[in-house]
Fold each of these.
Amino acid sequence: MVIIMNPDATAENIKDVIEMIQGAGLSAKVMEGSQQRIVGVIGDKTRLGSCAIDALPGVERSVSISKSYKLASREFHPQSSVIDVDGVPIGGDEFVVMAGPCAVESREQLLEAAEIAKKGGAKFLRGGAYKPRTSPYSFQGLEEEGLKYLAEAKEKTGLRIVTEVTEVEAVPTVAAYADLLQIGARNMQNFRLLKEVGRTQKPVLLKRGLAATLDEWLNAAEYILNEGNPNVIFCERGIRTYETYTRNTLDLSAVAAIKHLSHLPIIVDPSHGTGKWRFIKPMALAATACGADGLIMEMHPNPAKALSDGPQSLTPENYCDLMDSVTKLARFMKESGIKTQDV
C-alpha cells in the first residue's frame, strides 16, 4: 500500500501517518515525488484494520499494491531511481558501460584490459575473481588475489570495479574491494546471498536467472531492497530457450518491461546474451536504442588465450569500434530527447 500525500502536506502530517503505520506493527518509507510525497507501507496491510489513514490531515488517498514485490515496484516509487556507484550515476541521463575480461587471470592481463576499457570510454572494469563454472574442471578464478589486482587496476585507471560474489561467506571480502557487487544468473534466487548483499548497502548488479520470469527477477530484487539497501541495478543477460545457436536468447523486451514495472535501472549484457563476439555489437546497439541504462560486456586483450569465455570476448579493436558506435547512438538519443517510453 502507498499513502499519497497532498502537495501541501506538512512534516507533521507525514509524521502522523508514519506513527499510525508503525503503531500497527508495519514499516513506513517516505519517498519524494516531483510534486508529492508518498508514504509506502511495508508489511501485511490487513494489520491496519480499521485505521482511518485516509481521514488523516494531509492525506490525499491510499492505494493498494497488488504485486508481491513492493519496494521494487514503480507503483511504490513512481520516480525512476538513479543509483550512485562511487560517483558514477546509473539510471540517469548518461549511458554507462562496464567492460573487461570474464575472469581475472593475471595482474598483467587485467591491467592491460583496464587500460583498453578506459581508452574505449567505459566507466567500470568488470572481471571475475570468483568464477562459478558449469564444469568443476574449468578455471575457478584467483579469488582474493584477483580482487587485489582489481583494486590496483582501479587505482591506476580510476575505473570503478564490478565483480561477482558467489557465496555468503565471501561477501565481506568482495565488498571491501568492489564498488558494485554482481549477483550472477545462477545465484539470482540464492535468497541467503541476496539478504547478505542487502545488508552491505553496497550497490548490487542483479543478473536475471537462466530461465527466470520477470516476476521472479523483481522479487529477487525485493529481497535486497527489504534489507534496507535501495541500490539495485537489473542486468538482462539472456535466458535459456529452445534455441541453441546462441548461448542464450537475449530478451530486450525485458528492458521496456522492467522500466514499466520498476523504478530501478537496467543494463544489458550482450556477451552472455549471445555467446558469440560477432553478435555483441548489433545487440549492444539494440540495447541502447531500446532504452537500457548501460551495458556490461566482455573484452580480453587476447580472446584466443582467454581462460574463460573467449568466443564471446571482444578484441581490443572490436571493443573500441563498438564503443564508438554505441557512444554516437547514445548521444543522438540524448540530444534528440528520445526517452524509453517514446521507443
Note: The first strand starts at residue 2 and ends at 5.
Amino acid sequence: MKYKTILITGGAGFIGSNLSLKLTEKGYEVTVLDNLSPQIHSEYSPLYESIKDKVNFIKGTVLSYDDWKKALDGVDVVVHLAAETGTGQSMYEIEKYTDVNIKGTSIFLDILANEKHSVKKMIIASSRAIYGEGKYDCPKCGIVYPSERKDEDMAKGDFAVKCPYCGMDAKPQATDETSKIHPSSIYGITKQVQEQMFLVMGKSLGIPAVAFRYQNVYGAGQSLSNPYTGILSIFSTRIQNGNDINIFEDGLESRDFVYVDDVVEATVLGIEKDEANYEVFNVGSGKAIDVNTVASTLVKTYASNSKITISGNYRLGDIRYNYADLTKIKAKLGFEPKVNFEEGIRRFTSWVEKQEVVEDKYEKSIEEMKEKGLYK
C-alpha cells in the first residue's frame, strides 16, 4: 500500500461516507472532516452513524484554518468532497457557495504552500456542471458548445438547444474532458475554480492532483430531506409523502445517472493509480436517462398513485442534456461502471422504502426560486 492515511472532507456525506467505508475496508486509516450540515443531515444521520466508529471523525468546517490543520495531521492523501452542491440554490446564495467551495479550498492550499505537512496526493470532486450545456452537433456547423438557453424561447415551450452560430437545433453528444468549460451556474463556476486551483497548485508544489467530474450521483444513503439537489431523492420524497410530481420543461431533458458504488470505485482508482496524477476524468454511466423515464420508473417501482404532470415550468440556468464520454477514464484507469440504471433504481428504492418518511421541502425550494425570478 503506497499510502496509509487519508483525509476525506465531507466524509460524512453521501459520497464521502461510502468512500470512507470502502477505504477502511481496504485497510486505510481514514480521517473525516465534516460540519454535519442540517441541509444534508437530519437530527439522526444514518450516514454519520455508519462511519463514526470506523474513522477519526472531526466535526469542523473547511472555512476554519485550525480545523484544516487538525485534520491534516499525518495525512498522506486528501480527498476534498466538502462543498455546497445545489445548482439552483447557488444562484441566490452566492456568498455561501463561493465561501465554502472556493475559500474553503484556498485555506487548504494555503496550508500546503506555507506550512509543514505530509500530503502526497490530493483528489478534488469536480462536477459535470462545469461543462454547462456540454458538447453538441449542429447539422450545419458541426461540433459546437452552446450557451445557456434563452428565457424567451423556453417561455414559448421551445426547450431545444440551439447552435450558437446559426441558431439551428443541435443534437447532444457525449461530453469529453477536452470539451469547452463554460458553467451556467454559480455552483458550476465554483467547481471549475476548485478544479483549476488543485491542478495548478498540485503542479507548483509537486503534489499529484486528480480531478473527478462526477455526473449525477445517486444511490442508497442519498439525502431524502435535501430539496436542492438529487432528482431521484426529491421525487422519492414527494412520492413517499403522497404528493404529485411536477416535471419541468417537456420531460425530455436528461442526465447521466451514476450509482454511488461506481463513483467510489473510480475515486479509489484515482488514489491508488499513478496514471491518474495531474489528470481530470469524467465519472458517469455514459448513458443519458430522461426525466420522464425517471419519474415513471419511480412511480411504478413504489406502486404509487402520485400523479405525474409535465408542466412546461422551467428554471433559468438549467441544462437540457449532458452525458459523459468515459473513454479517458476507461483507458487510463481501467474504470467500467458496473451498476446500470435499472439495477441502481432497484437498490435505491429498496433502501428508500426502509427509511422513515421525511418532510417534503420541495415546495419551499420552488417558492425560493420564484421569489428570485429563477423559476418560470
Note: Residues 94-114 form the longest helix (21 residues).
Amino acid sequence: MAAFFKCPRSGNLRAVLCMGALAASTAFADAGPPADADLAVRARGEDFAIHAQFTYVEQDTLGFNAPYRGTNSLSPRIGRETTDFTLFLGFRIWPGAELWINPEIDQGFGLNNTVGVAGFPSGEAYKVGKNQPYFRLPRLFVHDTVDLQGDREKLDAGPNQLGGDRSLNRLVLWLGKFSVGDVFDVNQYAHDPRADFLNWAVVDAGTFDYAADAWAYTVGAALEWYQGAWTSRAGVFDLSDIPNSAHLEPGFKEFQLIAELEHRHEIAHHPGKLMLTVFDSFGRMGLLDEAVQRAQETQTPVDIGSVRRYRTRLGAHLTAEQQLSTDLGFFARLGKAAGNVEAYEFTDIDRSASGGLSLKGSAWRRAHDTMGLAGIINGISASRERYLNAGGLGVLIGDGKLPHPGPEKIVETYYNAAILPHAQMTFDYQWVDNPAYNKDRGPVSILAVRFHAQF
C-alpha cells in the first residue's frame, strides 16, 4: 500500500504530514487493511491545484450586402476583440469531493455587441461586455465522486479536475455555480471555444436553450451515474430573471430541468459515443404570435415582454462523436426546440443540424496542431418568422423586418497551431449565408485569430 503514496522531498508541513500518513499506512498494511480502504487511498490523488488560462480573440467581418438593418443586425467591415484570464483553484474537501473556485477577469465585446447571427461566430464573446477589464466569479462549485464496484482509471490533473484515479462505475454530484456545458452535451471535438471551434452552434447544439446568465453560467445541481457503457445525467438549474438577462432568478422560481443519456461504444477499435439530451424550461416567457397580434391590435411596436406568462419551452437533441482513426474524429448534432415561444437564454434557433471533422497534425509532423471543418444549418418556426418580420427582437437577432426568410447556413474552418509548450495560435474562418435567417443580407465572411495559453 505504501507504493501508492508519493511524498514531496522538501521539509515543509505537507511533506511531514505525508510521511506520517505513509508510516501509518504501512502499519495498517501490516495488519491487512480491507481492499476498499486501499482503493480510497489510491483515489485521493492531488489535494490542491492551481491552473490558469489566458485567451485573446480578434474577430472581423468583411464587406457584405446589407440594404437595411435593425437593432440586432450584424454590420459589414467591423472588428471586435475579447480577452479573459481565469484561475482554477481546487481543493479536496473529503475523499472523492473537490471544491473549485474560478475567479476571472474579462474585457471586450463580440461583433455588434454579440448580435446579428443566430449561430454567433465567437463562443468567447458574451452578451455583455466592457472596454475596461472587469472581475467575475463564473464558477464556485463542489463535485463529489462516489466510486462503485468495477475497474479503475487514471484521472489526469487539469482545470477543475484534481489528478488521481476513479472507478469506471461511479456517481458524480455537481452543486453550486457552474456552466450547464460543464456536464451536458460534452463533445471532445467541438465543445471548447478556447481550443477548437468558435461558433456557438458548433460548440453546443444550436437548439440547446440551456439555463444561464448573460455569461453562460448558472446555479444548480446535477447528478451523473456511470455504469458500464452507459451514463445517465439529470440536473436542475436557475433561469435568468428575464430572458437574456445578466441576473439569475434565485431559489428555482424560474428553472430548467435537463436529462441526458449517453452510450459509449467502439467501432473497429475506435471509441465513440451517442447522447440524447432533453431540456424543459419553466419561466415567464412570451408567445410569439400573441406578441404580434397585440402589436397589431394596439398599433404599437412588437413587445414580447408585454405577453410574458409562466410557460414552458421543451427541446431535445442528439449528439454523436466517433474516432475514425488515431488522428481523425467526426462529430454531429441534430436538435429541435419549441418554436411558438421566445428563446430564453441561448440563441434564436428552433431547428439545427451540425457536423464536422477534427484532424491532428501528425501526418505533417505537427502532432500537437489541430485543424477542423464544420457545417451548420439553423432554422426557425413560422411563428418566429412572423415575429421577426413584424419588427420583433430575439435573443441575438432582429433586422427590423424579415420579408424573405431562409435557413441560416454556416461553414467554419480553423487551424490551431502549438507555438509553445503551453500556448496555441488559431486562425479561424467562417462563412455565413442568410445571417439571422435573412436572404436580403449577406453572405458574410468572418475572420478571427485566437491566442490561448494554459498552465
Note: The longest strand covers residues 130-147.
